[in-house]
Design a protein that fits this description.
- The protein is mostly helical.
- The chain has one domain.
- Helix content is about 85%, strand content about 0%.
- Helix 1 packs antiparallel against helix 9.
């Protein structure tokens, strides 16, 4: 069962970079992929159409987050099986999780299509954007299975130490989406952007399947499905799904809150969300990479290596985010003009990043500890941390400050406070968990030493 990188025996810095850099590249390509719709819609169809896209985005974010969370939960168990070099268990987990992913995504698609009008109404979608938002989602949602399967197979590849192909597949998909978007928008209209996105995602999935068949990292047999593995997968997947979905739920809540300030505010908030991907995606990449790497280290009983990888990720991640935060915050008003030509919207975007920019380095700290906790097989702790981050701190505080008359700036301040609180809590949670694992490792090492020197115990 070959892996691309020797996480257990190789150099920590080089192994992390070999895994993280392609993953970060894939994330940035995914960012460009998402930006394409925004750029074409904002420039070809105007502010109202861009606001409609913003109203659609929270639902797409929730769908994507659920898929990423489930895939990340699966990756925890597969990574540990790969680290333990248990081929049979690895292939059994892949077959079982694949069946579960297909069943869930089909069910979610049916329910969402049926409830779409009610969901848009609950988001306070303005009347002038409702029709366009609905038409976009009505095209996008049926392709959820393709999106879910793509994210699932990328997680499987990460479990084997392969993140390079994800970047290559995203490059092809991004170029294709950029070419198809203006054509489909011209001939079909606003929802043509959704059709172009969906088609490029399906092609990306096909590339993934061809690659997996060619590389033969594992034997994919549906007959390997085992009902006994369903419960452990659910136990890991559900906390992971919740922790990935909570930011999207928070974005949905804030979008509904911002919607009360008018179309310009909605459009501006949509721009901040697009620019934030530049600052969020490297942290998310490190989160997912650490899940797989530390999972392998735990599976191979190398608890000391897990701690080293976390330190390395914190060092490089915080350095990168400090640089990116300065650049995005410094040029936020100019970057806003790429999406919509509105001085009022640009002013809102500039104020947002002036208030929030200090929080992105802290968000990176949080994500690194989340990845470490997931890799250690503790997604429930990560879930609790995300609940604290968004549900306990950000959402109530945003509602409170907005209601007290601070307006949009009150909402932005709540975002910053949540970053500060979450990074502090993550450090406490993560450090305590790593300390416990180190103690376990010392006990196991001592036991092995005793068995070696005492023939009776061998």
């Amino acid at each position: 069962m070959p892996t691309k990188i020797d996480f257990i025996g190789g150099n920590t810095d080089r192994c992390l970079m070999a895994m993280a850099l392609p993953m970060i590249a894939a994330m940035f390509l995914n960012m460009m992929y998402n930006l394409v719709d925004s750029l074409w819609i904002g420039n070809l169809l105007g502010e109202t159409a861009y606001a409609a896209l913003t109203n659609s985005t929270p639902i797409i974010l929730i769908l994507t987050s659920v898929a990423m969370g489930a895939a990340n939960g699966v990756s925890i168990l597969i990574s540990q099986a790969v680290g333990a070099k248990d081929r049979e268990k690895t292939e059994r987990l892949i077959a079982t999780s694949f069946c579960a992913v297909v069943a869930f995504s089909l069910l979610a698609t049916i329910l969402l299509e049926a409830l779409l009008p009610e969901i848009l109404q609950a988001l306070n979608t303005p009347a002038e954007t409702y029709g366009m938002a609905y038409s976009y989602l009505a095209v996008y949602v049926p392709g959820y299975l393709a999106v879910f399967l793509y994210l699932y197979f990328t997680a499987v590849l990460r479990s084997f130490g392969n993140s390079v192909f994800q970047a290559a597949a995203m490059l092809v998909s991004t170029i294709l989406n950029a070419v198809l978007d203006p054509i489909f928008i011209h001939f079909i209209g606003f929802h043509g952007a959704a059709a172009a996105t969906l088609l490029s995602q399906i092609i990306c999935l096909l590339f993934m399947l061809i690659y997996l068949k060619k590389k033969k990292l594992f034997a994919f047999r549906l007959s390997a499905f085992d009902r006994k593995d369903v419960l452990p997968l659910i136990q890991k997947a559900i906390p992971s799904v919740i922790q990935q979905s909570i930011p999207a739920i928070s974005t949905t809540f804030l979008t509904a809150l911002v919607s009360t300030y008018g179309v310009t505010a909605i459009a501006a908030y949509g721009v901040t969300g697009k620019l934030e991907t530049i600052l969020f995606y490297p942290a998310m990449a490190l989160n997912m990479v650490l899940t797989s790497i530390i999972g392998q280290c735990i599976g191979g009983a190398r608890y000391d290596r897990a701690k080293d990888y976390l330190k390395c990720a914190l060092k490089y991640g915080c350095g990168l985010l400090l640089l990116l935060s300065v650049l995005v915050a410094g040029f936020s008003k100019q970057l806003s003009g790429l999406f919509i030509q509105s001085g009022d919207a640009a002013a809102i975007v500039g104020t947002y990043f002036l208030i929030v920019s200090a929080g992105y380095v802290l968000n990176t700290v949080t994500n690194c500890f989340l990845g470490a906790l997931n890799g250690m097989g503790k997604p429930s702790k990560s879930m609790l941390l995300m609940i604290f981050y968004y549900i306990v701190v950000r959402m109530p505080l945003a509602y409170l400050l907005s209601g007290l008359g601070f307006g949009l700036n009150g909402i932005w301040a709540a975002v910053l406070v949540s970053h500060v609180a979450a990074s502090a809590a993550a450090g406490v949670f993560g450090a305590a968990s790593l300390k416990n694992f180190s103690k376990i490792g010392q006990v196991l090492d001592s036991s092995a030493e005793i068995r070696y020197h005492n023939p009776r115990t061998r």
